[in-house]
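Researcher: We're teaching a course module on how sequence relates to structure. For the next exercise, students receive a sequence and then see the predicted structure as tokens, so they can try to spot secondary structure elements on their own. Here is the exercise chain.
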Amino acid sequence: MTNLYFECNFGISGNMAIGALLDLGADRKKLDKALQSMNLEKEFDYVISKKTNKLY
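Model: And here is the predicted structure for the students to work with:
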């Protein structure tokens, strides 16, 4: 098992942290299950999509 430590002395943006974890190979189904377990459907909606910016 590999460990990952966040050293967030100055804070961290949640959406960027989730994006980075998914890029590293985190399980999307486990993320969905964890978010659904918080029962926030009436208060929040979340969308995860992959976008790429190509520079020419």
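Model: If you want an answer key for the exercise: Helices lie at 14-23, 28-36. Residues 33 and 39 are 10 Å apart (CA to CA).
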